[in-house]
Amino acid sequence: MEKPLQLIYNKDGELQLNPEALKVLRSIEDPMVVVAVVGAARTGKSYLLNCLAGSKNGFSVDSSVQAHTKGIWMLCQSLPQRPNEVLLLLDTEGFGDPDKGDKHNDNSIYSLAILLSSILIYNGQRNIDQQSLQDLHFVTELSKRILIKSQPDDCNSWQYIRFFPEFVWVIRDMTLEMKIDGKDMTPNEYLEHNLKLKDNDISEQDKKYNELRRCIRNNFPSHCCFAFPIPTFQKKLKHLQELEDKDLDEDFVTERQNLINYIHTHKKLKRVLGGQQVTGRRFVELTKAYVGMIADGVLPCVEGSVAKLVEVENQAAADEALKFYDIEMNKFSESGCVTMSKLIENHKARSIEAFSIFHKKSMNDKSFKHIQQLEEMMNSTYKALMAKIKEKSEEQCTAHLAKEMSSIKKNLASGHYQRPGGFQELKAELDKAIKHYEEKTKNEMEGLTVLTHFLEDLKPHLQQVQKMDSKMTENYSALEEEHSRVKSEMEKMEQERKAAEKHRKEEILEQIRKKFEEGKECSMEELKEAMEHTRSEIEKYGAEGRMEDAERAWQMYDDLVKKYEVTSKWSFMKFLREHAADFRLWMEITG
Fold first, then answer.
1. pTM, to two decimals
2. Which residues of 527-536 are buried (b: 16+ CB within 10 A; e: fewer)?
3. DSSP three-state, residue 421
4. Which of 89, 143, 358, 508 could form a Cys-Cys staple with 321, CB 3.0–4.6 A?
5. Secondary structure of residue 230 in the 3-state scheme
6. How confident is the model at residue 58 (pLDDT cuts 50, 70, 90)?
7. Rg (CA), the chain
């Protein structure tokens, strides 16, 4: 994208989505790092995003007192350091805009910024003080603004950390020295110092002070800080976007580059609850779900939105896989020379490829109903195609057989063979006709079937001829052997079909197992990250003497550990047994 697009806008008090922006996002197949910048109006959020985008003509920047960004704007870029990932930048409408005066809109915008981003940048001014922390009041109301599950439970308190973005505090126009008790501090140390709780929170003011800090520390999986000095002289600030680096403060340029490097190299991809990566298409479905809930006047629910995303994404993956299978099988059916063995082999290969497409595009879903649906639809196509090919083949084979057997039928009808030596003549002519027929129908699916039926229909006529020839018994046995040979070949083909089908299902089952293991790994990675952060906060609370907070954090940690242990013990075979009804097409393979 060369220019930003408005992703979300407010029309008549209701959030709306821009179809053009959604179209761009749907074209993105790679996983994304999603960076949202929030903060007060007219504090330079758009400039900051343009720095991250490496562009001076990206997000709209204005030096007037009037807020410029409305709703949420987006800009997509590739990441040179990470070729298979995309950077999605979100510029949000600033809170506290006097021209707007809509607190509900502010809350909706910031809820969406948290729900949609993998890195949340808070753009603050001058230093970290109580006022700047109060500007983050929406963080303390997360449980009132965002639901993890449609039916909240005791786990809600620790579930946030599993999907919340990383928190980055950017201090603009920092003028104070970062020193505490005469000791120089890094921006990260400065942030950590300001996130410490007050020793005692008896008063209402102290409780609010500590509540905000707890929310930031407990809900966001990590937090860091970058401190920017004033970039240039006051008179030049309104032209900041056009200034070259040589015209800016050296420390400002250095810290700006530090932030750019952090964002461009950080491995915080956007993931949904459960740890699965978000592509552009998945981002669209998430955004539609969250905005739809807000428009309906209900709190955005993470679990419900992910369920909708999984349903839409997996249905689309199943449709794409089925389309591939149908196209390839129809090409095959029109290629000519379609034998039964070739059809079976082609069905096996194409269905395995189709499932590979499905697994590449789909998301983990415990019900696996779309796998079952895809298998049934492909089997339906396969059976319909087989019936069509059989019908056509039967017509052609019947015509060939009728031509080859024409004179034999006439002679049988006229009684030509009902004389001594007649059966020998019949046998010789029949062997010759069968040989010619098999040569002409060797690539036909129904060649053996048509021949078998013909030989069965021929038996009564042979019995009549038998009465007139003394060598009839021996010769009749020879014909029975021919009939037996044809049937044996048909049985062999059926065994080959069953073996190919078993192998096909084994291959598909292995793909399902790999998808299961992938989902298990994602969940464990998500939980491990949350455990590491919570363990770190336990140590910090202990060092601060906040034993009650440390105890609460221990409870959160214990819940995460239990969830991690349960997840680590997930077994694919146990999973199959628990979902036997969904996997009835494959259960005979595993026993």
1. 0.77
2. bebbbebbbe
3. coil
4. 358
5. coil
6. low
7. 36
